[in-house]
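Batch job 17 of 40 flagged for manual review because the log was empty.
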Amino acid sequence: MDILDKCFAKENDLVTRDVAGEIIIVPIKGHVGDLEGVFTLNELGTMIWELINGQTTGRELVEAVRNEYDVGAAETEKDVVDFLRSLEEAGLIRPSVG
């Protein structure tokens, strides 16, 4: 299945904070924050992160980004796919049933 056809959910063991319009994500391992795994999201990353809810597909994320920003379809798809893969590899999101 193409990553854009999947829905993703955020992992439960995370702490997120909004600092000056950017989201900071800290994974929790063994009841302690994993400071080496901290992610800081820019405005676009924050927008996508907030839309990840276990029911929104990657394609719907692409459409939301294209509706908000003046970016071509191919570039948007690549950016969203790269971002989702980064989050998944870091253990911040997981595929959901949708």
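Reviewer: the log was empty due to a logging misconfiguration, but the result itself is present. Residues 73-89 form the longest helix (17 residues). Unflagging and moving on to job 18.
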